[in-house]
Amino acid sequence: MHANVGDMLIFHSNVVGHGDRKAEIIEVRGEAGTPPFVVRFDDGHEQMVFPGPDAVVQPATPE
Questions:
Q1: Angle at Cα 54 formed by Cα 57 and Cα 59, nearest 5°?
Q2: Model confidence at 57, in pLDDT bands (50, 70, 90)?
Q3: Which of 1, 22, 52, 53 is 20 to 30 Å from 15 at the Cα level?
Q4: pLDDT tens per residue, range 29-49
Q5: Is the pLDDT of residue 18 over 80?
Q6: How far, in Å, CA of 43 to CA of 19, rounded?
Q7: How does DSSP assign 1-63, residue by residue?
Q8: Distance between CA atoms of 25 and 2, rounded to whole angstroms?
């Protein structure tokens, strides 16, 4: 998995009734865009994550 600052990390829920979670990647700590990533969730919570198989990177759209 490779990502850049500004990309979105989507965590797909595997629990019925719970939606997916989105977080903006604010820092890439691995080499060449690899995990771990520091992300910011919609509620402002920041966390370092090592994404699992239920997560995908959505590239930032160019403006």
A1: 5
A2: very high
A3: 1
A4: 999 999 999 999 999 999 999
A5: yes
A6: 15
A7: ----TT-EEEE---STT---EEEEEEEE-SGGGPSPEEEEETTS-EEEE---TTEEEEPPPP-
A8: 11
Residue position matching structure tokens 């019925």? 16
Tokens encoding 19: 């939606």
- Global pTM reads 0.87
N- to C-terminal Cα distance for the chain?
24
